[in-house]
Amino acid sequence: MLLSLVHPSVICLQETFLTESTNITFKGVSSQQKPAQEVNGVVHGGSAILVNSSIPHRQLDLQTSLQAVAIRMSCQKTITVCSIYLPPSMAFSSNDFYDLLQQLPLPILITGNFNSQEKWWRMFLLNVDVIVNSRFI
């Protein structure tokens, strides 16, 4: 198994299909997750972050409709890691993502399956510097 061979500090997963009642358990690994959404009895999406248990970390309480989970971890430096899954059929606005960013302490590493929401993603990249820079002022 990859975890026993590589010993990663953190792994971000999307489309986990994990429900509220399902947990990921591996020896020496702590898991934080945002459950998948169930629509008409079918489970869709979900995000998770697996962290080596020896690394100090805590899950952040996010107030968002996005399928996102985030942790604050200390590994040489303290960093926020966020895992996001955006379903291809999900309707969302750039404000959803901006609101999420405002909840994440800097510095931030964002990982995710954005399902090629190209128009939205391009617009976000053009404006992200304004958001990040305004948080330093």
Structure, explained:
The structure is a single chain. With 137 residues, the protein is of the alpha+beta class. It has one domain: Deoxyribonuclease I, Chain A, CATH 3.60.10.10. Helix content is 24%, strand content 36%. The protein is built from 3 helices and 9 strands. The chain has helices at 2-6, 94-102, 118-136, and strands at 10-14, 29-34, 37-39, 42-44, 47-52, 57-59, 67-75, 77-85, 108-113. The strands form 3 sheets. Strands 6-7-8-9 form a 4-stranded mixed β-sheet, with no helix packed on it. A hairpin with a 7-residue loop joins strand 6 (57-59) and strand 7. Helix 2 (94-102) packs parallel to helix 3 (118-136). The chain starts with a helix and ends with a helix. Mean pLDDT is 78; it is low at 129-137.
